[in-house]
Amino acid sequence: MLKGYGAVILDGAWLTLQLALSSMALAIVLGLIGVSLRLSPVRWLAWMGDLYSTVIRGIPDLVLILLIFYGGQDLLNRVAPMLGYDDYIDLNPLAAGIGTLGFIFGAYLSETFRGAFMAIPKGQAEAGMAYGMSPFQVFFRVLVPQMIRLAIPGFTNNWLVLTKATALISVVGLQDMMFKAKQAADATREPFTFFLAVAAMYLVLTSVSLLALRQLEKRYSVGVRAAEL
Amino acid sequence: MIFDYNVIWASMPLYLSGLLETVKLLGISLFFGLLAAVPLGLMRVSKQAWVNFPAWLFTYVIRGTPMLVQLFLIYYGLAQFEVIRDSFMWPLLSSATFCACLAFAINTSAYTAEIIAGSLRATPNGEIEAAKAMGMSRSKMYRRILLPSAMRRALPQYSNEVIMMLQTTSLASIVTLIDITGAARTVNAQYYLPFEAYITAGAFYLCLTFILVRLFKLAERRWLGYMAPRKA
């Protein structure tokens, strides 16, 4: 049915999955840094955190991808000669894609995390301090474990959006399943078949994620009584 | 590295026509998307499985696949079938503007339908009981009570959807349209100044986002004033 392109597209799907997972890992780190900035009592740090999340969320992913990919390449090749490196540097699309998506979704996650942190009763952090924990310990031992449960619904949403946004990286030349499908479509002149196949793959990916994250939410909510109407 | 203002200044007409294209794409797709979303949202709250299921399947599939794939399916995909190439619709379906608007409208209709359905489900019971007590028929109750009330309460979420849609219109540049992103890609291709080109585009989108946020604040004050927290 896919005229022998099935394996090629599956290869691309593996790359899509790698891209999505790695950028999510980076986004979580950046999201945590972003939220620490935003909730910081130091005024200019909080301001920087707000700037990061507002500006990134106000600009389309595609524009940011093009900016970081082409701009980053340009910058790299202007800076490298100054450091005594004269060869032309080609940005690896996978690395650039992970960096870009991680940077974008870090901003979205910092918003999700912020809501979750603010929903934790103040007494929790105070109790941690009263036990003599350092602010670092309070953050990672008291706040983060509780924040995870509250952040899962928002996180699920962000993950789904991120998975779908990976398709955009094909525009700057990453050979993910979208790219492979376009190639196959051009070669066989059957675009509908291939794009439909890829759409089905994305649907499988999002459906599996939805089910898995729902299980995770259940696990993290053990011990929390749901309000009954 | 110096920011080259001259090139940006010289390309301003291109950016402004791109801005017009972006606003046009956004306006058209939001209009038709909302038009389709209301019946879809109503189907989604129906208790009858044969009414609910098709709407559920539609929103699930559209929300579970990337916009880019949907756009390619319509723009490149439909040309695969001779029936479509020979039909009277072909002049429309071979135009990038039409395909982009169609794809965007389909996409936003799915998200908006879920927003409206969620808002309908959250209708306070008392409003429904009051409508029934007044002897309203089902259709009259939907027209006069449920929909107006639910659409108002959906405003905050809908404003998010509109902003997401603004960002989605940037995909039009991939199918050759010259919207704001398309203008930036043209400028970058001509002068090879990626920073200048894309930062300018980003600034345009940021301004549009702020304007939309402001407009929705005003709309919420107008239609949702009764739900605002009381001022001390």
Automatic annotation (TrEMBL), chain A:
This is ABC transporter. GO terms for molecular function: transmembrane transporter activity. It is found in: Cell inner membrane; Cell membrane. One of its GO terms (biological process) is amino acid transport. CDD domains: TM_PBP2. It is a multi-pass membrane protein. Its main location: membrane. It comes from the Bacteria. The chain crosses the membrane at residues 12-39, 51-71, 91-109, 150-172, 192-213. Keywords: Amino-acid transport, Cell inner membrane, Cell membrane, Membrane, Transmembrane, Transmembrane helix, Transport. Belongs to the binding-protein-dependent transport system permease family. HisMQ subfamily. It holds the Pfam family BPD_transp_1. InterPro entries: AA_ABC_transptr_permease_3TM (IPR010065), ABC_transp_permease_HisMQ (IPR051613), MetI-like (IPR000515), MetI-like_sf (IPR035906). Residues 13-213 form the ABC transmembrane type-1 domain. PROSITE patterns: ABC_TM1. One of its GO terms (cellular component) is ATP-binding cassette (ABC) transporter complex.
From TrEMBL, chain B:
CDD domains: TM_PBP2. It is a multi-pass membrane protein. One of its GO terms (molecular function) is transmembrane transporter activity. One of its GO terms (cellular component) is ATP-binding cassette (ABC) transporter complex. Belongs to the binding-protein-dependent transport system permease family. HisMQ subfamily. The HisPMQJ complex is composed of two ATP-binding proteins (HisP), two transmembrane proteins (HisM and HisQ) and a solute-binding protein (HisJ). The HisPMQ-ArgT complex is composed of two ATP-binding proteins (HisP), two transmembrane proteins (HisM and HisQ) and a solute-binding protein (ArgT). This is Histidine/lysine/arginine/ornithine transport system permease protein HisM.
